Amino acid sequence: MRIRQTLKVLFALLLASLAAAEQPSIENARALLAKGELKEAAVVLHEVAAADPGNVDARILLGTTLSLQGKRSESIEQLLEAVRLQPDSARAYNTLGMVLSRFIETKAAREAFEKALQLDPNLAEARVNLALVLAQAGEFVRAGEHLDSAIQLQGDTQAAAYSHYLRAKIWVAQKEMGNAVSELETAVKLRPNYAEAWSDLGGIRRLNGEAKGAQQALERAVALNPDDDKAQYRLGVQCLQNAEPHSAVDHLRKALGHDAADRAALYNLALALRRDGQGDEAKRVDDRLSKLLQSRNKAAADGQAIGDLNDGGMALEKSGNIRAALEKYWAALDLDPTDVVVRLNYGLALCRLGRWQEGAAELREVLRLDPNNAAAAKALYIAHDENEKQAAQAGKAVSEKPTQKN
Are 160 and 151 in contact (CB under 8 A)? Predict the structure, then answer.
């Protein structure tokens, strides 16, 4: 009798374990994320959160996953719910800040990082994240203080290499090159394969006249990342200064692989070719540079007209006449389709008229021309949100439309 009862209990436990294994879990989601399957991971995490609405870990991971998919509103909502459920969690506030930063919500991100540090002053990651936000706002002294604290907390670890690298950036902004070199040397010591740090170290050494040390650092940078056009350019110029024109030609050509219109790289390439005895090729490069300068002069001549049209469009927007403003912006873009400022204003005006899809297309073009344009990135996330809302509303309207009977 006891044996039968024991078998029943064991069988029940086995069924329970099998059922648990079939249920979605955070571990399942993490496994999917490790394989880069964001959409599938989000589905699993939605199921976990639905089954257990108070699961803060699931909401934090879901919010992060959604942010990687570019889903602005949903990701922020999940993180806001996480901090509501666990208001004493520094980790939750830090993750909220990271997601807000991703969507260029700088003020709110800063507040989230500051709250995280109120809850846990020893959370080094939050100090690094806050330093980044402060640096973007030009508050270099405070940014440096937070990085110094993070470095002290992290110790001599690989994680600290990034903090030292950022600290060097702050020192450069403050014109403290000696301190910047020291931080970069520490960064590459902690992380020997840190290509960006080697490149910046070589760049500063070159400016300081340390020819040998500069070339060594830059050679290490391009060996680690041959696709870094900035490092290739820096090394090419250093080779020129070190009377190695043949090597300079190779590196400067690689630098132009990403931007064939880089005037500085073209100028130095022509110089290197002449010094290397390749006069005919140098002449061809000089001709390319001359045509670029002529094009630049024409652009400067058109600049006044473009500026007037852009100002006129902004004035019309301010008065509420957005449609007329579009005409001004379009006329300016006829003169120079690559003008990022005008195209941004044009895309934003389309969004203000509710033409989110067209606006998003213009904002994507702004980011193609200027990948670091924060205003365009923030507006594009919002445009994506609105496009999804409109699509959802349209789908709902179709599903709710009554069918006619014959």
Answer: yes
Q: Looking at this protein, which amino acid is placed at residue 238? A: Q
Angstrom distance (rounded) from CA 310 to CA 34: 46
pLDDT value, residue 389: 84
Query: 43: helix, coil or strand?
Result: helix
The larger pLDDT score, comparing residue 282 to residue 291, is at 282
Query: Does the model's pTM come out above 0.85?
Result: no
In whole angstroms, what separates CA 325 from the centre of its chain? 31
Q: How far apart, in whole angstroms, are the C-alpha atoms of residue 240 and residue 222?
A: 16
Under the banding of pLDDT at 50, 70 and 90, the label for residue 244 is very high
Nearest to 26 by CA among 62, 80, 77: 62
Neighbouring C-alpha atoms within 13 Å toward the C-beta of 25: 8
The total of other beta-carbon atoms located within 10 Å of residue 100's CB is: 25
Query: What is the distance between the terminal CA atoms of the chain, rounded to a whole angstrom?
Result: 67
Give the pLDDT of residue 10: 40
CB atoms closer than 10 angstroms to residue 323: 10
Q: How far does Cα 290 stand from its chain's mean position?
A: 34
Cα(163)–Cα(171) distance, rounded to whole angstroms? 12
**406-to-3, 88, 102, 227, 401 alpha-carbon distances in Å:** 67, 62, 53, 66, 16
Gap between the Cα atoms of 271 and 131, Å rounded: 41
Q: Tokens 């110029």 belong to which residue?
A: 237
Write the DSSP string, 297-357. Answer: HHHHHHHHHHHHHHHHHHHHHHTT-HHHHHHHHHHHHHH-TT-HHHHHHHHHHHHHTT-HH
The HSE-up count of residue 161 (CA atoms within 13 Å, CB side) is 16
User: CA–CA separation, 333 vs 207, rounded Å?
Assistant: 39
Determine the Cα–Cα distance for residues 118 and 122; give it in Å rounded to an integer: 10
Average pLDDT over residues 96-114: 95
What is the rounded distance in angstroms from the CA atom of residue 346 to the CA atom of residue 343?
A: 5
Task: Give which of 156, 154, 107 is closest to 134, Cα–Cα.
Answer: 107
- Give the chain's domains with CATH numbers: 302-383 (1.25.40.10)
- Give the per-residue pLDDT at 207: 84
Name the residue type at position 203.
Answer: G
d(CA 138, CA 94): 21
Distance CA 344, CA 359 (A): 9
Average pLDDT over residues 205-230: 94
> What one-letter code names the amino acid at 406?
N
